[in-house]
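Holo model, NAP. Inputs:
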Amino acid sequence: MARPICLVGIGKIAVDQHVPSIAASADWDLAATVSRSGTVDGVPAYTDFDRMLNERGDIAVVSLCLPPVPRYDYAARAIAAGRHVMLEKPPGATLAEVDALGAMAKAAGVTLYTTWHSRMAEGVAPAKAWLADKVVKAAHISWKEDVRRWHPGQDWVFEPGGMGVFDPGSNALSIMTEILPMPVHLRTAELFFPANRQTPIAAHLAWTGGVTGDFDWRQEGPQSWDISVETTAGRLDLHDGGARLVIDGQEVIAGPGAEYPALYARMADLVATGQSQVDVSPMLHVADALTIGRRTEVEAFHF
Ligand code: NAP
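Output:
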């Protein structure tokens, strides 16, 4: 039977992915929304989160699609009210607040799921399996997209806690931390901050193990969400954010990119089995980059 779920923060990703994924799922029934301005046709809409929590005892699960900075307060209130919580990526503005939420969820006996949608791209699990017994010689991330196209007018991405180019970059890092067969840590980071902004618009990172990454939000024309891995026994390429897997030049998988339906299926499983899944490893690398990064000022950015 479908479980009632409440979607909080009816913005770009809620409309693009969460609403259609819930609508297409037999596991879930979108029973309420909470947003200061957004609504979904035919679904009871609240503007006050606490009111929804008080009035809707029938809703045991809350999915938070807010930007990372406001998300913690909502998650903490939901857990305190005995609700299971699903978090958009990145799961918080700081590592410690996500740890705190994990402890709260455990104490309350509810599910907390820190989603990383890119890990659900169709090529990622087979890439991990292929790499499991390989020796990596080098790897490279090329994550270059147009911020005006994917975050139109969203100034929060350039505010403290918005993470700048690491907002999409954390998708690449979620794949990297999933598929590499060895741990890596950051050695150097070059961060490019627009003169009028608080977060980087581009970054070049270099880890141990010959792993490097270029992240750029100023990309016009073709966008790239690619990861290549050279091993002693062949080469692996992930394209299209992980949906397409190529091994030694042969296309192995070309998925449709059905990441969000897979996240909601996983959440249904976690709730049904009384488990949580809390993983901040992609965020560790963002925090490390912002800790050791050399900062260069670049041209001011305006949407
Ligand atoms: P968004 O459209 O700017 O914001 C989502 C919603 O959050 C808005 O509807 C807004 O609702 C609410 N909100 C914003 N600031 C708030 C605040 N201070 N307090 C309470 N509510 C607030 O952002 P988005 O692009 O959907 O991104 C949200 C999350 O999804 C981010 O973590 C992002 O990394 C992730 N994500 C985004 C994309 C993408 O393509 N954009 C893709 C994958 C994942 P109201 O103003 O109506 O209350």
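The chain has a mean pLDDT of 97. The chain has two domains: 3-114, 118-257+287-298.
Archived with the compound record.
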